[in-house]
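Researcher: Please predict.
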Amino acid sequence: MRLVIGNKNYSSWSMRPWVLMKHFGMPFEEVKLRFNFTPGSDFYRQLAAFTPAGKVPVLLDGELAVWDTLAIAEYLAEKFPQHAVWPRDAAARARARSVCAEMHAGFTALRGRCGQNLEASLPDVGARLLAEDDGALRRDLDRVVALWQDALRASGGPFLFGGFSAADAYYVPVVGRLRTYGLPVPDDVADYMARVWATPAVAAWVADALAEADFLDFEEPYRSAR
């Protein structure tokens, strides 16, 4: 299998299936395309060879192309049933899919205002965003906190549904955002974030992101090139 991704420092959607596959030891090669959203760019020309959707990530398995992170997670769960990509318990599995779908379709203020930037520390930007907030960012933050607390309370941890699953992989970029922007969370949520960040798969992605040293000004409107 091959996984087509974007810049590791910035691509939150690429991070999700990469971490999931790495965690479970699923064999794959990564194909990294440098972000450039100018129409007709090399990014779009190369991506067109893999998917008509024009977005990363894309999972390639032989002649098959699977795009969209939820579709990729479901494909991997079917291809590797020996791994608990989703919780084994039916009720927990339904809840895990629900929280992933909520992330997929929602949290637009958090995702839009706090773009992924793993190498940065921007608590001043986070504080300003909260100070200028129209309520949407705070609602997203409160919902993430409540969602994690409810899942951890029901499962007993250490991850959202006990063992590490697609649900945790789906929220890894949110952990990264909360860290980058220094957004306030209660102690139990901070402990969960630390556990997620310390997992070998997440640590490997972050190390690669830090090694990129590839500044893209359109991804960082809040600061200038160094």
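Model: The mean pLDDT is 95.
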